Amino acid sequence: MRGARISRRTTAIVLTTLAGAATLALAVSVLAGGDDGPTTVAPALPTHPVASNFKPDATKIEDCSEQTCLEQAYGNLAFRSGPEEALATLEEEIGSTTNSCHRIAHIIGAASLARFDRNVGRTFAEGSAVCASGYYHGVLERSLVNVASRAASVLGGVARGLCDDPEVTALAELEYQCLHGLGHGLMITTGYNLPVSLQVCDHLAGEWESSSCNGGVFMENISTSYGFRSTWLKDDDLVYPCNVVAEEDKLTCYQLVTSRIIEVVGLDWERIAEMCASVERDWVESCFESYGRDVAGQTRRDPEEILELCSVARPHGGEDECITFAAYDLVGNDASGEQAASLCTGTDVDLRETCFRAIGLIMARATPTRAGAVADCEAIAEGTDVTACVRGADAHFASAAAR
Description:
The protein is mainly α. The protein contains 20 helices and three strands. Helix 5 packs across helix 8, helix 13 packs antiparallel against helix 14 (284-298) and helix 15 packs across helix 17 (338-345).
């Protein structure tokens, strides 16, 4: 018999709500590999770090020199002047690549939700993905603060309604950000209870919705927004928990796993590629997809460096996945697709079509019509590259229509 597995459908969770405060600790989590599988007991997790809804005060940005003060000050700006001004000021004053920026963006999201009377759709429509989408994460974590119970069934009922507002679903990219942010918010709300968070994602409308939510859960597990160390990590098993979660959750976990590996082994890309090649056979490609996303981020999205590091994955059969997910990442950070196009034009001929298809797939999430997607492709490419880009866009629209 293989080791114990986390199966969300056979997981018994015992939760303790701390009296007198909106906090939550995981008392016991029993993980079963099946009806007769072995069980393990996980240690208690951190208490819920988000204690209440945002409350404005008189704090101003110019009066602050430390993180907590800045978070409150930027929240005040968002509450009184709106998230657009607050996020623009944050990006200009602090920069969009720092952890400080991400944390402040969380509070801007929380304050904006208060500004718009807890209307998630309106709040999402007024924000942006700067600072690693911290704004969206903040909106979703605070939208769950007042839920009376942390049981998966109760949270799931609330979660189903958070990202179905027409202002959110009008664009696939905005809907994705909402669902992904929901995953982050669930982990924070439940005190980093991975099994319960995944169970709640299961309550969403469909496979795409659940998968998008799962991605936020696993990302928050690796790099927590509030500086906690999740108990669902192991220093002697860097692919954990991907190798123990239920089969339906492995894809999104492995597509993020190299971020965890990098935390421990650093930017030793040859070693990382070797580790991806050695994971569970069915998930090697997904690990190299994660590898490609991290290559893009760690090189500050430099096309030449991305090509060089993706070639490290070639002996292991992972170059294709590396290029594809690097292209996804570039479009996610430059919606015009121009930066990603420069990556694609530098690839080998056999990878070029795959790369441009990746561009088209992601760009199409930001436009409601095929005509708009075709125009976007024509703006960054020519000839057969346009054809490949449009094929990617068509794949997006076909997938969206099937949901």
